[in-house]
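### Sample
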Amino acid sequence: FKEQPKGLAIAFFANMGERFSFYIMMACLVFFLQARYGLAEDKAGNIYSTFYLLTYALALLGGFIADRTQKYKGTIFVGILIMLLGKILIAVPGLSYSITLIALFVIALGNGLFKGNLQAIVGQLYDKPQFAHLRDRAFSVFYMGINIGAFFAPSAANGIRNWYLKSQGYIYDADLAGLSNSYLAGRLEDSTHLQLLADKMAGAPVADLQAYTSEYIDAFSTGYNYAFGLAAIAMTISLLVYVFFHRLLPDRKKQIEENKTIVQMPWSEEKPRIIALLLVFLVVIFFWMSFHQNGLTLSFFARDYTSTHVGPVTNMFFELKSFLAIIIAIIGLVYLVRRKSKMIEKLIGAGMLLVGGALAWYFYGSYSESNRIQPEIFQQFNPIFIVFLTPLVIAVFSYWNKKGVEPSTPRKI
């Protein structure tokens, strides 16, 4: 945040909490829908797709309201409140199917009021000439906050769900959950494999398979409700950050009132900008279409077609504690070898390298030759790659900026 306006840090942390909450939903929404309501993949996928369609489409409504009223900060505040209400609602165990759909719509509506307008406010921070040259770097930092939240979300969702399952005397087993739903719906012709899984889970022969599978599904889906409860807590933190520090963000309506002069851009200048914007629209449509397969087809693929058990080396990256130890060691190494690091930074880097390396080695030794992994965790790798690559990209563009050859924003895209 060096040299950046103070409002960037507020937007960064408010958005990071909301995105943490958002990516908890992405990590487990389709699995929750299947577990709680016994939906087939195509039906759960349709709900997931409609939810994300509304999440982005309703941003048009949020932008329209903010533009007409010029109350961007007020629109964002209302959006956070609505999202919080929706996430509290979906966190309640035992909801009917229709109420869950209503909760998802409420979340999408709140997101529509929040998401685009916060980005607009971040852009307004750089309308002043002294900050204009920092705009692109600021958005890179801003989106790094998004990806930090996205990195922790899958492990948090899994941790809460597994904790609840354990408290009820169960452990996670995707096969048992799927077969249980098929059995309860009367679609399972042969229950032999289900019986074996249930006996193994219970540690003794299960006499009443109907009751056991019903109880397991209830515990399994309630674990996801608790994960949604964690998402609601994250939204509450974002709300508090925004409420207490929103004064550091620009007030668009006040800016317009102070500057009464409005310059109408000639069509000859406006036309190429609109064309460029439409081309960006075309690119991002396909980008987000593919990106959000993370929570749908790629999640199904990870659950159904990847190994459920891995060795200790691979497990280092699927367990948050060991992955964080590796990250700490890498960051420490960077500070240690970086030429610009001061002596105190090199000492801190050496300490981080030693501590992170020692912890990583300890965790490696504690893992067995075969460790169970869960499909939601695959979603943490994309955001952590972005977090690590963002400083490198910023450094390259900063270097080009000093040389006077930094490309335009559309060229960067």
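The mean pLDDT is 89. This sample (Major facilitator superfamily (MFS) profile domain-containing protein) is used throughout the tutorial notebook.
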